[in-house]
């Protein structure tokens, strides 16, 4: 569904150059739900805008939904849906009208647009709301409307930019359910960006972690957690044997990131539960006693911290203004025919 190679985007404004995306490779297969995780300013939206033809890459190439990004941007747009960061629908428009209008923009006849709209509003729990003005919707309802708009033409591949940012935990969980249903009932392939660790962890089959415009890790949430940082282990020992205990741990298979303080040895190891019996034997053989032990399963934040030296949590719940500063109508049908659109650099926030 997506195969991108060396995708790169540089912005130059007022003599200053930002390497927003530094040559990323992305592979997504049909039916996958892939998360693109990274802190503010990492390059998520820029990558998404390239993949959805809204922004021309400085270098690199991609096939999206079977069409070449550069040679056939119109083909890409016909086959994909895009729910932009922050979404944005006309505030004075009724829900049903908005959906019908969107359908007609995508070339559906009036009757088909209405029928498809009805189907989507039912699926997304918006049925009772079709006569409401969109400005009166709650955050979660509005986000579901954005999704309906992005799905009007039954795309096989949908891009979501920060689908749940700004929603309360309950609406967020509700939206996750809708996203899962889309995948399971309609076989839609989904590519979403997020800076919420929980979202990436619980929702996605696979995660790509981006930082500073580069993909720094990828894998299933479990594989990422296991491979990159491993379990955290804390051993308590008598203070006077801390150094000897640390030496034993240092010889253990796969132990890394060893930190000692008097009476305590902390380290990481791929699997804490399987490493401990061998360690206990080694302690015994040297006549040392382990006073306590604790194994902590890693979180995605540990993964990020290991990779970048920074915590992704710092950006959790941070501000959410769109990097492109627009109130796009939430689809790839923006009237920007695949050309560069640095139109918003005035409002761009450098994270
Ligand atoms: N039109 C633009 N002109 C200049 N710089 C830009 C433009 N768009 C994005 N950038 C810069 O490129 C970098 C990546 O931005 P991008 O919007 O892709 O990040 P993001 O990962 O989506 O962040 P967020 O989580 O805040 O949405 C940032 O430093 C941003 O300021
Ligand atoms: Mg963004």
Automatic annotation (TrEMBL):
Pfam families: ABC_tran, DrrA1-3_C. InterPro entries: AAA+_ATPase, ABC_transporter-like_ATP-bd, ABC_transporter-like_CS, ABC_transporter_ATP-binding, DrrA1/2-like_C, P-loop_NTPase. GO terms for molecular function: ATP binding. The keyword Transport applies. Gene3D superfamilies: P-loop containing nucleotide triphosphate hydrolases (3.40.50.300). Keywords: Antibiotic resistance, ATP-binding, Nucleotide-binding, Transport. It is a peripheral membrane protein. Residues 340-351 have a biased composition (Basic and acidic residues). This is ATP-binding cassette domain-containing protein.
């Amino acid at each position: 569904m997506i195969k991108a190679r060396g995708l790169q985007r540089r912005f130059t404004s007022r003599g200053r150059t930002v390497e927003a995306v530094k040559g990323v490779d992305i592979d997504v297969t049909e039916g996958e739900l892939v998360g693109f995780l990274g802190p503010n300013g990492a390059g998520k939206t820029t990558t998404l805008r390239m993949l959805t033809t809204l922004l021309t890459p400085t270098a690199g190439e991609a096939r999206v939904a079977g069409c070449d990004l550069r040679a056939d941007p119109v083909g890409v747009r016909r086959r994909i849906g895009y729910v932009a960061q922050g979404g944005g629908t006309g505030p004075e428009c009724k829900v049903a009208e908005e959906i019908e209008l969107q359908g007609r923009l995508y070339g559906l006849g009036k009757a088909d647009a209405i029928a498809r709209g009805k189907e989507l509003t039912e699926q997304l729990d918006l049925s009772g709301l079709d006569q409401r003005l969109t400005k009166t919707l709650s955050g979660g309802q509005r986000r579901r409307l954005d999704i309906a708009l992005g799905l009007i033409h039954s795309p096989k591949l949908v891009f979501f930019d920060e689908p749940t940012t700004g929603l309360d935990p309950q609406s967020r969980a509700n939206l996750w359910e809708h996203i899962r249903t889309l995948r399971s009932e309609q076989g839609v392939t989904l590519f979403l960006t997020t800076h919420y660790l929980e979202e990436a962890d619980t929702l996605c089959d696979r995660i790509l972690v981006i930082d500073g415009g580069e993909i720094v890790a990828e894998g299933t949430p479990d594989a990422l957690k296991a491979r990159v940082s491993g379990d955290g282990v804390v051993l308590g020992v008598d203070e006077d044997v801390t150094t000897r205990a640390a030496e034993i741990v240092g010889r253990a298979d796969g132990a890394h990131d060893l930190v000692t303080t008097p009476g305590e040895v902390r380290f990481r190891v791929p699997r804490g539960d399987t490493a401990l019996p061998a360690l206990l034997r080694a302690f015994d053989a040297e006549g040392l006693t382990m006073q306590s032990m604790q194994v902590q399963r890693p979180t995605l934040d540990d993964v990020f911290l290991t990779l970048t030296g920074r915590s992704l949590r710092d950006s959790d719940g941070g501000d959410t203004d769109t990097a492109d500063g627009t109130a796009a109508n939430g689809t790839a049908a923006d009237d920007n025919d695949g050309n560069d659109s640095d139109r918003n650099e005035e409002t761009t926030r450098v994270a």
